[in-house]
Target: Diaminopimelate decarboxylase
Amino acid sequence: MTNFNDLPAHVWPRNAARQEDGVVTIAGVPLPEIAEEYGTPVFVVDEDDFRSRCRDMANAFGGAQNVHYASKAFLTRRIARWVDEEGLALDVASENELRLALSAEFPAERITVHGNNKSAAFLRLCVAEGVGHVVLDSPQELELLDMIARSQDKVQEVFIRVKPGVEAHTHEFIATSHEDQKFGFSLASGSAWEAAKAAHNAENLDLGGLHCHVGSQVFDAEGFKLAAERVLDLYARIHNELGVDLPYLDLGGGYGIAYTVDEEPLDVAAVAKELLAAVNEFAAELGIAAPTVVVEPGRAIAGPTAVTVYEVGTIKDVHVDDDTTRRYISVDGGMSDNIRPALYEAEYDTRVVSGFTDGEKLQARLVGSHCESGDIIVKDTQYPADVSTGDLIGVAATGAYCYAMSSNYNAFGKPAVVSVRTGRVTPMLRRQTIEDLLALESAQP
Amino acid sequence: MTNFNDLPAHVWPRNAARQEDGVVTIAGVPLPEIAEEYGTPVFVVDEDDFRSRCRDMANAFGGAQNVHYASKAFLTRRIARWVDEEGLALDVASENELRLALSAEFPAERITVHGNNKSAAFLRLCVAEGVGHVVLDSPQELELLDMIARSQDKVQEVFIRVKPGVEAHTHEFIATSHEDQKFGFSLASGSAWEAAKAAHNAENLDLGGLHCHVGSQVFDAEGFKLAAERVLDLYARIHNELGVDLPYLDLGGGYGIAYTVDEEPLDVAAVAKELLAAVNEFAAELGIAAPTVVVEPGRAIAGPTAVTVYEVGTIKDVHVDDDTTRRYISVDGGMSDNIRPALYEAEYDTRVVSGFTDGEKLQARLVGSHCESGDIIVKDTQYPADVSTGDLIGVAATGAYCYAMSSNYNAFGKPAVVSVRTGRVTPMLRRQTIEDLLALESAQP
Model:
């Protein structure tokens, strides 16, 4: 067990530090000051950390244009601007994500559009705005997009999402599964080839590459390499039978981050090097031009850059059995601002950020304020005995899939979000109030 | 397998029917008309059904005042008004739920306040507004509320939440567990007795009863009865040692509903009769006055009264293996408007509501539009082969914990909600737009 006053550097934002008085700062800004001004819970995003992870990815994958930030992890106008300024491309997966990006003046030609069920209206918007790529997910969509592009007298560049039959998680992967899912065309059944041929032959579509996604929280290159090898077989067939070399190979996301002190994040530079070398090697063996590899990290960029700051409320020692007492520490948020523990049994690293703690370590559970016994942030942990009501607790690595999936359960407003950089705080999203919720109510009695 | 054109009466709203042309109506309103006017997805709430379930509960439990509608299942101003007009009481579990209820002019004296982590500000509001009962959940809160009531020169009536050590689900219950949770005071360890004594002795608190909650989706009386028996032992001790008969026994919620055709909802009248008889019997055996039993249904009132209407988009036949094909039917919502399948592996009954279907039954999966392969509404079902893009699908029993837990994942706006009664549609909540989401963005660059 590490010292509770430490901030594990591989889990916390790059610019997080504990001052001599015990207060935790991010980018030089004391978290208690942010809590005081913006209230709790509040998400604090380390801008330089975010940008540095964009650059790490860009360096690893041969250029910022090859890295597509996945909006679904967490998107605001300011984040879209950071992504744009760093030269990355952007993935969107819904009409509203596209509208959000465009409202931040993100260049449409650097946007790739995902989704298993894009409406005609969404596809018309994509073509009209001139998005870089639409990732086709079904024969029906392929025909519809071709027709829409024709009606706008345009040629739309597309990718085709294929299922390589590889499912990767952590350090393991399954090489023969994952066909039975909603996304993509099957390589194994031949439907991916049929789709590639159809896209190649469609007058108003231009096939730019194939896309696949192997999983989430992946920590090494093996699963990606196997998927690339399988997908490149189809590139070879396309080369041989259709006479074209597709310029891009989109290998999706899945780059794992460390949520707890025991985890190690995926080594982006090492995995990228191994993966790119493998793609070049496979292409050479197949006698085709190696496509440019494109990747789509969301969590690996946004995840580690943010911390959720909560205030401690009720503390209660619960008699579990004659030998065990567990201290329940309640904070002023929970499953409305972070559904991941309930949904995915996700674990988190949490620390007191308002000062040093040094009491005896007690069995503890960090819980939220929702009216549901499953509203738990950290199920099994140890907390120093001197943690008390009014202290601030920071939960690290909440930058991805927390705010993005947040709800208004129990009529909780969504938290405020701020970004910090070189000692300065800038509000990013204001806290949602009861008035915001009531604004949806019909005036009719 | 039932006929796909049926609407199982024990799952669908009481006023749902299929017309001669195959279109499904609720309270006489064709669902396609609602979809046309309000867009999809849309929640349609059957007002008379909702009110009738309030009355069924009131009749079963000896009076509307003994039934507390649990806001967390689904609360809007109009629903608060229905609950008020039917004479029920209301449970809230957060400051915003209380504010929402008060904004609908729900009488504060009929409101009971729950929560494991009520802030001082929330408790001050409770006392100032004169809520009926505050359910105390920790020694810390007991002291704080007493102090707050004193500072406002009031006496606040309270319940104490106790853990009876019973955990009930479906037709089974566990008689010796559930101590290790965030809510309540333990009966077994004596802390519930200590709290009762402290509340009794507190100058500005008036102890009205004890509260317990045994679980969710319970289908018979056994678990409730065992909990009541254990809690009543403490009533007897309070009677004997403190000389008072507590007027109320709050047995919480958990009354199960049918989500699928194979399930039978809990028989409210029968379970209530058995439970009330048992409480009277236990009290007589203990030589104490039988307290009035109070219950807190949320799901059992709201759940069956609403249907989510989606429009079918992409349809794709997925090659699962050489012998199996699965039809993936995508609709224009998903885990943002109904997290329950992903969160609890919840199952639902779904039907085409825009007309008859009669094709061959195919293995099918109903999926949403989110960028996540786990975004599934119904995992294993059979759908007629003639279901096609543009059809409307209704998902029954979505009145509880769907809108209430909805998110903006993938920047989806929350759906519209309407209520229907005797052929008339009234908007309840308007659809959330991208502008609503952008309204939270800070103006600062």
Notes: Chain A has two domains: 16-46+304-438, 47-303.
